[in-house]
Amino acid sequence: MPQAPAGWYRIGVTYTSRHSFIPSFLSIVGSPVFSQMFSHSTKETVEGRIQIQDACPGTVAELLEYVYTGNCQTLRNGDAEAVVTLYSLADRYLMDDLKARCLSVQPTGGLTQENAIELWGKAHLYGLLPQKRGNLVEAFRKFCWT
Amino acid sequence: MPQTNPTIITQGKEENVDKFRSYFLSPRLSDVIISVGDQEFPCHKLLLAGTELG
Predict the structure, then answer these.
(1) pLDDT, position A103
(2) Cβ contact, residue pair B25, A11, below 8 Å
(3) Chain center to CA of B47
(4) Concatenated DSSP letters of A6-17
(5) Which of A1, A10, A14, A94 to probe by mutation at the B interface, max B CB count within 10 Å?
(6) What is the C-alpha to C-alpha distance for residues A12 and A1, in angstroms, rounded to an integer?
(7) Residue ranges per structural domain of chain A
(8) Residues of B numbered 9-38 whose beta carbons fall under 8 angstroms of chain A's beta carbons: which are they?
């Protein structure tokens, strides 16, 4: 796979038999929150700057990687804590496709006896439990209740 | 085990994915900056808004 020049963004492009190409950002991703923001003369649009509060830069970078490529390291690695945090940010920006991807992650690590209860609480706070279904939620259930 | 091609849903129809490719976008073309704490990410409105913009 070719490497991106330093500082440049890689854009995932999917080719199908019917369409010549579908940039990932035109098919599935993006945020209605950003869309609304850019559709009006908001402070963010005028200044060209969006300030994200109460989020870790690493999680925002993951969300942006997903926006640009349709995938990100957190989804690939399956670290439970990182996935829960990414889910909360996706929920804030109404990115349903990313939320669904988070729910489908089969956690491969990051869930320990020390952080399980804290993560369970976070998952409840973000609306991830108890109504949602998916590999991530099932992993929580198994870990916390068995 | 038989291998199946990945699929993608576009316009309500499921299609086989033939291949993936990567292209690159320069941050010099960015039209919005996302800042988190002391970190800044030069971004592109078109991508952030996805299909919703316009």
Answers:
(1) 82
(2) yes
(3) 6
(4) TTPEEEEEEEES
(5) A14
(6) 12
(7) 13-145
(8) 10, 13, 15-27, 31-37
> What SS3 state is found at B10?
strand
Fold assignment, A13-145: Potassium Channel Kv1.1; Chain A (3.30.710)
Q: Model-level pTM?
A: 0.72
Q: How many CB atoms lie within 10 A of CB A70?
A: 24
Report CB contact under 8 Å: A27, B36.
Answer: no
Contacts of B48 in chain A (CB under 8 A): 30-31, 34-35, 38, 67
pLDDT classification of A6: cutoffs 50, 70, 90: low
In the predicted model, is pLDDT for residue B52 greater than 50? no
Predicted local confidence at residue A86, as pLDDT? 92
In tens, the pLDDT along B10-51 reads: 555 665 655 556 666 677 778 899 999 999 988 888 888 875
A42 contacts: CB under 8 Å, gap ≥ 6: none
